[in-house]
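name: query_chain
kind: protein
chains: 1
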Amino acid sequence: MSCRPPEAGSAPTYRALFNEKGPARLALDRGEWERRGVAPWTLSHAGHDLGVGGFNIGFGRKGLQLSCYLLPEQWGNGLASEFVAHALDYAVRVFRETDVFAIIGPEHRAALKVLEKSGFRRDPTPPSQSGTRVMCWSAGPARRADRRR
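structure:
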């Protein structure tokens, strides 16, 4: 799997994932790349786009917000797990960020499992009224202690 900044050629993938909101989402991600150098990448393999995933700056919350949207035909192939592992490594190695969070709706049970297998833990605050949960990951001292067990 490879990642590239969002570009005009990413439009079909954004449209497939986000429907009529795709063009606006792509414009937002491209703007964030230009301003901050942090925004979701377009994910691809063997020359074919698979989805969109990466980080946003977590305004109002400590750390980076992780997201991953794969085209439905890519679900169940282990690509989300592969992406999350590489993204967390990138967050620590390149951004020097030790805290990452993800916001998961109740309809995304598979995504919740991927995050849990990747070491994310549920935020202790109760889910929102819509059932949305915040999952948190940290490479800090508590995380290192978990690895020794």
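note: The mean pLDDT is 88.
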